[in-house]
Amino acid sequence: MQHIIAKLVEDFEQGKISRRQLIQSLTVAATAACAAIAAPAGGRKGFQAVAVNHISYQVHDYTKIRDFYADLLGMRVTRDTGKECHLLFGDSFLIPRNHSASAPRIDHIAYTIDNWSRSAVEAELKARRLNPRPDTENSFHVQDPAGFDLQISGKEMQG
């Protein structure tokens, strides 16, 4: 999986694919990885993802990204802190964040799951040895098999 992500980023940096194609491809890759994690193991039932909650996007100047997506795609700007903001669209949002990385990158994708129960989700993630890291009252971070940061969220975690 890391090889695929590295190739996608390289293609983006070389101008072979657009930013939109990069984000779409990374979303597909993360979805596939999430499906592998959620596959029943030892008779356990995984979670049911119902939406992409948000995509965290590290960039040099979040204001350029904010203005671009708001203007081109009509995303609604909320929670603008001067360093990041939420760009709402449908039931999802994009979070462009200022970062000193040499190239823009997706640092994590959050998926909303059905039937959120903090204790049950934490127990299932621990049972799968995924070392859940609490983020908010309604989410945990884990790593997929390729080492990509995956956030699992309840519906209450919104933009």
Structure description:
By secondary structure, the protein is of the alpha+beta class. The protein has four helices and eight strands, in the order H-H-E-H-E-E-E-E-H-E-E-E. The protein has an eight-stranded mixed sheet. Helix 1 runs antiparallel to helix 2 (19-38). The model has no long low-confidence stretch (mean pLDDT 86).
List the helices and strands and how they pair.
Layout: H1 2-13, H2 19-38, E1 49-59, H3 62-73, E2 76-78, E3 86-89, E4 92-98, E5 105-113, H4 118-127, E6 133-136, E7 139-143, E8 149-153
Parallel strand pairs: 1-4, 5-8
Antiparallel strand pairs: 1-5, 2-3, 3-4, 6-7, 7-8
Helix pairs in contact: 1-2
Strand content: 25-35%
Helical content (DSSP H or I, runs of 4+): 25-40%
Report the span from N to C terminus: 29 Å
Structural class: alpha+beta
State the strand order across the main sheet: 2-3-4-1-5-8-7-6
- Tell me the major beta sheet: 8 strands, mixed
Given the structure, what is the number of helices?
Answer: 4
Total DSSP E strands: 8
Overall 3D geometry? globular
What's the order of the H and E elements? HHEHEEEEHEEE
Report the average pLDDT across residues.
86
| Low-confidence segments | none
Radius of gyration over all CA atoms, rounded: 16 Å
